[in-house]
Design a protein that fits this description.
Strand content: 5-15%
Number of helices: 11
Radius of gyration: 18 Å
Order of helices and strands: EHEHHEHEHHEEEHEHHEHEH
Number of strands: 10
Low-confidence stretches: none
CATH superfamily: Divalent-metal-dependent TIM barrel enzymes
CATH class: Alpha Beta
Mean pLDDT: 95
Shape: globular
Number of domains: 1
CATH architecture: Alpha-Beta Barrel
Largest sheet: 8 strands, parallel
């Protein structure tokens, strides 16, 4: 079982890309969750502005754009274990935005398939309580349109798109987002795989998001079972999406590892703990030590899961 960490919060914040990836490898990690979500300007996108994204280009140009970074990743012996696509896929009042995002996701899938990257996280669309144009029914229609549109490309590759359990904010409160209910997540994945005729979809379990909503993470994992293909492991105090290292919040990690062992999870133990390794938040000198600590926690988790 491999142990990985997100590239975001580490590599982009270091002036030397080589140094960032070398630091990840020297901490012990086997691979990364590649933050391809940086491919578009999220601030611009959240305003509904459909600007430029590298995944609008032909595949050859996409390869040219990422060639240097990919070479550095491989030079440091890091495996591409999963990736995160740009988000969000929907912006209130932005006509045509979902279809614009779908075209970008299709090229992102093709790119991942061409470099042997199997698991790609693509956020679904959640019902926003302040969006009077939407209802639970229309949001489900949007999500089905989003993911069903990707099936022809997925059928041509070995890439598996992972939905993620999400939350939304409404007047300072954490509200359930798409796939935060395990039964809904099961329905989406089984429905989509049934249409695809093969396993093209799975779930990326985000422990921090479940904790924010007061969900029992172990119960969620057990209900999803073999549909769990990827993880975003991080902690918080249940009040803010802090993306902290395990044991620095209030998640019961024994419950998480026991559930992963019970479902026979063999995928990557991936940490999304960028708030604990971002140089703008943590002294740069401390980052290597914190990364090593996160890796060692992962090694302990792996032992619990593989030898329950």
């Amino acid at each position: 079982m491999y142990i990985s960490v997100q590239s975001g919060g580490i590599v982009p914040e270091w002036n030397d890309m080589e140094a960032g990836y070398r630091m990840i490898r020297e901490a012990g990690f086997d691979g990364i969750d590649w933050n391809l979500d940086h491919a578009w300007d999220r601030v611009q996108v959240k305003k509904g502005q459909m600007g430029y994204c590298i995944f609008q280009e032909p595949l050859e140009k996409v390869h040219e754009y990422y060639a240097q970074e990919l070479a550095i990743i491989r030079k440091n012996g890091l495996k591409l274990l999963q990736a995160h696509a740009p988000f969000p896929a929907y912006v209130k009042g932005a006509d045509g935005f979902v279809d614009w995002a779908i075209a970008i996701y299709k090229q992102c899938i093709r790119f991942c398939g061409s470099i042997g990257l199997k698991y790609l996280v693509i956020h679904g669309i959640s019902l926003a309580l302040d969006d009077e144009t939407q209802s639970p029914a229309t949001v489900r229609e949007l999500n089905l349109h989003l993911y069903e549109s990707l099936i022809p490309v997925l059928q041509e590759t070995d890439v598996v798109v992972c939905l993620e359990n999400l939350f939304t904010n409404y007047q300072g409160n954490m509200i359930e987002g798409v796939c935060s209910d395990p039964d809904e997540a099961v329905w989406y994945i089984d429905h989509l795989n049934g249409l695809a005729g093969k396993e093209c979809f799975g779930i990326c379990v985000d422990t921090g998001h479940l904790n924010l909503l007061g969900k029992n993470i172990g119960v969620y994992i057990r209900k999803l079972g073999s549909r769990v293909k990827a993880l975003h492991l991080h902690d918080n105090e249940g009040t803010k999406d802090s993306h902290l290292a395990p044991y620095t919040g209030n998640i019961r990690w024994k419950d998480v590892t026991e559930a992963l062992a019970e479902i026979g999870y063999t995928g990557s133990l991936n940490f999304e703990t960028f708030r604990h390794v971002t140089p703008s938040r943590v002294d740069a000198e401390a980052v290597p030590a914190i990364l090593r600590m996160i890796y060692e926690i992962g090694a302990a988790f792996r032992d619990r899961i593989e030898h329950p």
